[in-house]
């Protein structure tokens, strides 16, 4: 039986209103929803559906299940593994959650917020801040990524060291299951030992098991003092020693520890020439550190200064500067945040997002850099990442003059050189960005048969029709 697109669109329009169903035959440009942030993946969509409530999501999921149309959940479309856009083959519609953006409740006494999936991360940070609370997830895309996307990717960001990643920040979820049933797990409990922790299934599942419509997340007391420092180090081994020493000195006050290679800093300065020189000399590696607490700036600053002095004496760093105020702190952070944008502007690069036990990172980088140079002469490694979490973005920019298509054709070969070593050292090929369509084939190579079989059984149990974000993850 042939599929009647007009009738399907008419049914969708009747459910959520004509203005909220975008389609090509209506003259709508679907490209912003069907092409991913990096411009690497694009697929056809029957429509872009923009529901405004959980009930509307439920109605659309039921329509999709009845008619065999697959749904691709989408938040801010800032994901980096092609998971938020359709793939060729089969009937697919993008389910864009951006209208579902209410903050349903902020409960300062329980230190929780209950928020709809389409709420922009930065909006939640600001609203929590307005009542003296902190929502600590923080990442470069925070002005456009959404809480639902953050949960579906188990996002990490720059404060995992102190607060954990999204999995640790979510207390409850509301999910529309693939058959249209609403799973209400919106409990703001820190202790609940009543059987399987079902919400964990949907965190990091990249929209393959259901549509997240709302979440209850943890808040923390907003820090009243923050100090940011930027240090030059001679090697990654020295950076790892610095991490251990600073943690020892500052304990829980130590909130971020970001490693940035010399070439990454140079790239940012090339594309963002307003970036100031932060230290008097050049170093092969730099570290951006942050400490925060509920006391005064002055007291925290003294504690950080004392810790850094001790680290200098113990030869855990070579040179360091401390931001004098909030604006200077932001300048330091924008250097870190602009790396992704500078790489994007610089042209083609093959991205990696690996994690390893922190103690093994110096050995890993030491062997990877020459190995990659030998295998891919002229390739430019841009290495940076959340060293405090053992997470490195080990990106490889195209050799000068090599055209994007030619370089991207090397992706599998580059990945294999890098990921074979990561897995041999018991690391992960995806610490943050997820699998999507980018690493599906590789995940199948590196996970054990037992892990893969269990993942497939879970998928089959929840989504027997295979209509939730098909072709992603599994
Ligand atoms: C400049 C930049 C910096 C970044 N920095 C970081 C970083 O530091 N740490 C990090 O972890 N990531 C980072 N990312 C990646 C990205 O921002 C995160 O993965 C983010 O969490 C994705 O959110 P999103 O709303 O854009 O989701 P999308 O890209 O729209 O979707 C991502 C995945 O989630 C699914 N999804 C979205 N919404 C829902 C929902 N409501 N229900 C079910 N599934 C859903 C999609 O189907 C897809 O599989 C960065 C990206 C950019 C562009």
Automatic annotation (TrEMBL):
What InterPro entries would the database entry show? Answer: FAD-bd_oxidored_4_C (IPR004113), FAD-bd_PCMH (IPR016166), FAD-bd_PCMH-like_sf (IPR036318), FAD-bd_PCMH_sub1 (IPR016167), FAD-bd_PCMH_sub2 (IPR016169), FAD-linked_Oxase-like_C (IPR016164), FAD-oxidored/transferase_4 (IPR051264), Oxid_FAD_bind_N (IPR006094)
Q: Which SUPFAM superfamilies does its entry note?
A: FAD-binding/transporter-associated domain-like, FAD-linked oxidases, C-terminal domain
Signal peptide start-end: none
Q: Which residues form the FAD-binding PCMH-type domain?
A: 41-222
| Keyword field | FAD, Flavoprotein
Q: Which Pfam families match?
A: FAD-oxidase_C (PF02913), FAD_binding_4 (PF01565)
Source taxon at top rank: Bacteria
Query: What PANTHER family does this protein's entry cite?
Result: BLL6224 PROTEIN, D-2-HYDROXYGLUTARATE DEHYDROGENASE, MITOCHONDRIAL
The family annotation for this protein states:
Belongs to the FAD-binding oxidoreductase/transferase type 4 family.
Protein known as: FAD-binding oxidoreductase
Please report the organism this UniProt entry assigns to the protein.
Acidovorax bellezanensis
């Amino acid at each position: 039986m042939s599929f009647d697109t007009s009738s399907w669109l008419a049914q969708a329009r009747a459910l959520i209103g004509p203005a909220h169903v975008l389609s090509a035959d209506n003259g709508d440009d679907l490209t912003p929803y069907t092409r991913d942030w990096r411009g690497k993946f694009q697929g056809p969509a029957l429509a872009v559906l923009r529901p405004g409530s959980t009930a509307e999501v439920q109605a659309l999921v039921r329509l999709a299940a009845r008619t065999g149309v697959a749904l691709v959940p989408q938040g801010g479309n800032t994901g980096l593994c092609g998971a938020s856009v359709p793939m060729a083959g089969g009937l697919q519609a993008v389910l864009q959650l951006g209208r579902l953006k209410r903050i349903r409740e902020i409960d300062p006494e329980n230190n929780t917020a209950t928020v709809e999936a389409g709420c922009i991360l930065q909006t939640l940070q600001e609203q929590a801040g307005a009542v003296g609370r902190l929502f600590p997830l923080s990442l470069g895309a925070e002005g456009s990524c959404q809480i639902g996307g953050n949960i579906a990717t188990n996002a990490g960001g720059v404060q995992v060291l102190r607060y954990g990643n999204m999995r640790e920040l979510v207390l409850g979820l509301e999910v529309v299951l693939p058959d249209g049933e609403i799973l209400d797990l919106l409990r703001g409990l820190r202790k609940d030992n009543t059987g399987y922790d079902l919400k964990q299934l949907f965190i990091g599942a990249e929209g393959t098991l259901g549509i997240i419509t709302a979440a209850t997340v943890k808040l923390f007391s907003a820090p009243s003092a923050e100090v940011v420092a930027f240090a030059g180090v001679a090697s990654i081994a020295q950076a790892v020693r610095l991490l251990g020493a600073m943690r020892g000195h500052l304990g829980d006050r130590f909130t971020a520890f970001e490693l940035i290679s010399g070439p990454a800093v140079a790239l940012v300065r090339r594309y963002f020439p307003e970036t100031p020189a932060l230290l008097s000399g050049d170093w092969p590696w730099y570290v951006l550190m942050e400490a925060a607490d509920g006391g005064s700036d002055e007291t925290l600053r003294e504690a950080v200064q004392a810790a850094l002095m001790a680290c200098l004496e113990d030869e855990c760093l070579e040179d360091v500067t401390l931001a004098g105020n909030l604006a200077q702190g932001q300048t330091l952070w924008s250097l870190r945040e602009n790396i992704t944008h500078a790489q994007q502007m610089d042209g083609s690069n093959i991205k990696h997002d690996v994690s390893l036990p922190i103690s093994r990172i110096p050995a890993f980088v030491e062997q990877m850099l020459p190995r990659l140079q030998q295998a891919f002469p002229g390739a430019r490694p841009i290495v940076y990442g959340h060293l405090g979490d053992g997470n490195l973005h080990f990106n490889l920019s195209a050799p000068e003059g090599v055209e994007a298509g030619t370089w991207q054709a090397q992706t599998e070969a580059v990945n294999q050189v890098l990921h074979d070593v990561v897995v041999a050292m018991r690391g992960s090929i995806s610490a943050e960005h997820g699998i999507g369509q980018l690493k599906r084939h590789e995940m199948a190579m590196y996970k054990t048969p037992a892990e893969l079989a269990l993942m497939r059984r879970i998928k089959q149990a929840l989504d027997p029709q295979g209509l939730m974000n098909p072709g992603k993850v599994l």
